[in-house]
């Protein structure tokens, strides 16, 4: 399975913060926002990843992330000229996807929880599509899943005025190769975007959509507003300062999953210097050498 991280858009809900910088490059506590969805795809074992950015922001992403070789990965870059919707990611990435399965992560979504890695890895061989549902107070902001009395998904609506459930669809999706052809069939919605909900609905009608409800042990943040960005930052800060583990440390994920060796960790420690991030990687190396 390959991965796509969609990191486009203008971030207008965060103006003036995002007037001169991509939303996905903003800090969420001690890391750029993009580190978090990247670490999620890496947790799933995905090493070949396409970053879709705006034309103006691509050079900054390349400067930050490079070609991925320092993480044992292979990074590619593409441009979304206008924010035409999430489904367009599969059309832009058609050549990159080739004949493989693909996972899509939104660059402004953050996930954390016990068992997250094993849950993600269980999706990489998917036949059909697999998405998640997460209970929220404001489902009208998201794609919303409706379930029947047997907890089977029966309907998905994009940002409904009157949601039929409290379950929103987070920005993490797993698909087989049919997604490319399905994406080409999507017509723009009333708000002028090619909605990913339309793709999910195609899989649902074909009987090939799996919807997993995220448990209480899972946390999800969509950092598209100032309030949610602040909430995510506080969540990461509190957890990291109370525990000994760092959330979204891409070098640690690469090392623990054997994408890289000790020599790459040492290079990363030198790169990050005396920052807390560099110090944390030093502790990872020391624990390994004990």
UniProtKB/TrEMBL annotation:
GO molecular function, one term: metal ion binding
SUPFAM superfamilies assigned to the protein according to its UniProt record, in alphabetical order: Nucleotide-diphospho-sugar transferases (SSF53448)
Catalysed reactions, as listed in the record: dTTP + alpha-D-glucose 1-phosphate + H(+) = dTDP-alpha-D-glucose + diphosphate
Protein EC: 2.7.7.24
Domain Nucleotidyl transferase: 2-236
EC class (word): transferase
Cofactor: Mg(2+)
Alphabetical keyword list: Magnesium, Metal-binding, Nucleotidyltransferase, Transferase
Protein family membership: Belongs to the glucose-1-phosphate thymidylyltransferase family.
PANTHER family documented for this protein: GLUCOSE-1-PHOSPHATE THYMIDYLYLTRANSFERASE (PTHR43532), GLUCOSE-1-PHOSPHATE THYMIDYLYLTRANSFERASE 1 (PTHR43532:SF1)
Task performed by this protein: Catalyzes the formation of dTDP-glucose, from dTTP and glucose 1-phosphate, as well as its pyrophosphorolysis.
Name the record gives this protein: Glucose-1-phosphate thymidylyltransferase
